[in-house]
Design brief:
This protein is mainly alpha-helical and 139 residues long. The protein has 6 helices and no strands. It has one domain. Helix 3 runs parallel beside helix 5.
Amino acid sequence: MKKLLLATLLTAFGADLAAVKSEPNLEKRAEKALVYAGELITAMRAELDRGDLEKIKEHLREFQGGIDLCVDSLDATGKNARRNPKHFKRAEMRMRELNRRLQTFRFDLGVDDRPLLDDVTTHVGKRIDELVNATLRGK
């Protein structure tokens, strides 16, 4: 039942990053990328229950790609984040939430497997900082 629900969720939000990239509206693409990244954390929890560490690594790469797609899409809008902060702030808050979920997931991993998340959490932190700086300084 849990697998079916997870498969349905991933299908509903785009089964892969390519489906998210096909969204023509850059602001909607950024939002969809974050929704997709959130679904990947849920999928990683299911993989942890099965003990499939390789699948978790794959999901982490996709997660990082989703975060990058979000920030890059917002940058590509050409909007001044200081004058139009709505989507930038939403993305920042959502990315902070995803980073917290990732930190919680870290504690569920075995001690030896926790370093897998170090690079990803650092990268997410840097991308959050980019959004904050864009909002504070503008483009």
